[in-house]
Amino acid sequence: DQQVKQNSPSLSVQEGRISILNCDYTNSMFDYFLWYKKYPAEGPTFLISISSIKDKNEDGRFTVFLNKSAKHLSLHIVPSQPGDSAVYFCAASETGTYKYIFGTGTRLKVLA
Amino acid sequence: SAVISQKPSRDICQRGTSLTIQCQVDSQVTMMFWYRQQPGQSLTLIATANQGSEATYESGFVIDKFPISRPNLTFSTLTVSNMSPEDSSIYLCSVDLNLGELFFGEGSRLTVL
Predict the structure, then answer these.
(1) B100 vs chain A: nearest CA distance in angstroms?
(2) Which residues of A touch B92 (CB under 8 A)?
(3) Average pLDDT by consecutive 10-residue portion of chain A (112 residues)?
(4) Which of A48, A54, A60, A93 registers the highest number of CB atoms within 10 A of its CB?
(5) What is the pLDDT of residue A6?
(6) Which residues in B34-52 are b (16+ Cβ under 10 Å) and which e?
(7) Taking CB atoms and an 8 Å limit, are A43 and B104 in contact across chains?
(8) Is B106's CB within 8 Å of A44's CB?
(9) Is residue B99's pLDDT more than 80?
(10) Given a cut of 90, is residue B51 above it in pLDDT?
(11) Inter-chain contact B42–A4, Cβ cutoff 8 Å?
């Protein structure tokens, strides 16, 4: 049972445009969410997080939106740059646990 | 943050053999974890490496197949035993510094023939 789902395995976006990566979850106990970026032959690196007490968190070109009622979060990258081309994973956690449940990832390709 | 080094970065192994992956962290950490990423799949937690005691395994993972050592607060090993092609994955060491995120090593890509 996949508790965290990224239904789009890949996404292509033109440089300068907005990239929107989506993530859905099923466990209503999740209250902390993260996005990671992964380049080939490297480990995942943390991008941005959001707690369930918020519905938006922004850090430079990256914004994460959380819709708790829909159990949905999205990562917006604007403007997209070729260096953003990577696999993006969303992850969810429940406060008080050490477990992070990851989605299957979305491969973003930003076209120059 | 934390700097996490894994060895080997990649290896090709024969079916039935075992391989030990090492993880070294540049600071003392309490929470250290081992993840697996099979091709096209998500990152799946194998176990929590506990210092001074046996590792805590997630459902579907057993100590006989994935023995883990954690001799101190900066080092851990994961062994993949009696390997089969289904064990071909990226194995990732990670640590939680209680900063609200996991830090990952660069991963060890294992191919089993």
Answers:
(1) 8
(2) 43-44
(3) 90 97 96 94 92 96 97 98 97 86 95 94
(4) A93
(5) 95
(6) bbbbeeeebbbbbbbbebe
(7) yes
(8) no
(9) no
(10) no
(11) yes
